[in-house]
Amino acid sequence: MVRDENNGGGDGRPTDVLSHYLNRRRLGAYLDGALDDGTARSTAAHLATCGVCQREADGLRRLRALLQQNIAVAEPDWTGFWPGVVRGVDAAKMARPAPAARRAWRPKWALGGALAATLLVSVGVWQFGPGGAPSDGVIVRSASTGDPGATVMVYGTPERDVAVVWVLGLDAK
Fold first, then answer.
1. Residue extents of the structural domains in the chain
2. pTM > 0.85
3. Residues 6+ positions from 27 with CB-CB distance below 8 Å
4. Integer distance in angstroms from the first to the last C-alpha of the chain?
5. What is the pLDDT of residues 23-33, one digit of tens each?
């Protein structure tokens, strides 16, 4: 009989895919003995019937055995530690303090920065500020003054109740 990995050991009943996924994720914890009793029994029952999980568990067991054979933690050498700490403290006591950093005042840089900032603000106001021309029409009228050399001009905008009157060419008497 050909063994199908999705039939739960050949009994004709397919293994639940989600159950297989969950049990396969628990294999490491199961082999470490970190699962609670109910979960460990469920994982052991699944492991007894699933060939894929059996192969993965065997691989994990072999990997654990290899790691346990080759791990040899060397005992650290602490003989030079404390004398090194004492030398560092003594050296810090004897060292001169570092001179304080001097911040040099550079008037040329300050003046240049101020001029650049003024230029940028001026250009920004000129470009993005309110426009010079009103959005609505401007009414300019001229009137006759009776004096051939004089002119009267009236300037006003429709949205404001303000008018500007210019009288040009009259002699002040």
1. 17-70, 139-168
2. no
3. 43, 47, 53, 56, 57, 60
4. 130
5. 888 898 999 89
